[in-house]
Amino acid sequence: MADANAQIKVTDKGANNAVSLPRRWKLLRNSQIHIAGDNNAITIGENCRFDDLTIVIKGNNNTLRVGDNVLGTGAFSLTGSGTLMIGDNSTIGRCVMTAYKSTISIGKDCMFAQGLEIRTTDSHPVFDLNTRKRINGDRDVVIEDYVWCGARVTVMKGARIAKSSVVALGSIVTRQFEPFSSNRRIPGQGFEERCNVDAKDSQRDPGGG
To answer: Has residue 188 got a pLDDT over 60?
Structure first.
């Protein structure tokens, strides 16, 4: 719908960038896309709800793919040939996701409460004193289908959250989890148990935790 797409502000400061917007939105309000670089690609699926969402692309050859019926608020940031993929029917509430020279892959029917942060990088490099080589490289993050993350969860580089898992409020995720698990990971503490997630209500208010 041309009129609806006119409500999302797209700033393109580069060359050969491609932005594919849906024909139909469920909701589009106070959202914007900023691109500074070349050969970047953004594809947004049908019937999405973007409410106060800012998408920032910096650098070249970044890719953002958002599936159908996704609710998004907060900020998506891709820098330096990063990739962010979000599956159908996922709900993302006021989150910050930063993909730098690596990939964030989010499955379908996921539910992320407010304050979630996902990072594929430490931002600042650390070098070995002898070899002068960087020792804290960037790593992909994978979140499989039907994952529920509570408020203020941080998912660090290299983490993998398997399908139908629950991550408790305030957790810091640094490793790989088994499917159908409930996880609470706070510095100095750890807890994990088996569970099952019903994602039929995945389009609820993302502010819950």
So the answer is: no
